[in-house]
Fold:
Amino acid sequence: MIKQLQLRKLLSDRGYLLSLLLMGVLTVIIVIIAAIYVRPSELRVPVSYSRFDTKLYTLGQWYQLLGYVLFAIITAASHTLLSAKLYQIKGRQFALGYAYLGSLVLLIGAVFFFVIVRVVSLIQ
Structure:
């Protein structure tokens, strides 16, 4: 795992901490969006978006929207742990790149989730 000396080095690197903070903020944003817009309902609601589908939205149960929150938490946790390991093995640049890539994935997920829940809020 991560050695004690490497952990101190990680915590003293401001750029790395900024990338982890960005991932944390994006994860919290996704959780807040879910808390505001996801409501239990018996109606089938849009749960995913696809340009290749004729209806553009796939319908499902309301609790399937919580999969986006789970995705955000797993993505943030895995990118944090893997970037810490990359920092230890490959160095700062690889770890920063991987952490910012995780932030980009979370940003794209947040945008898609926000669009989908806005459509859901129009239906309910």
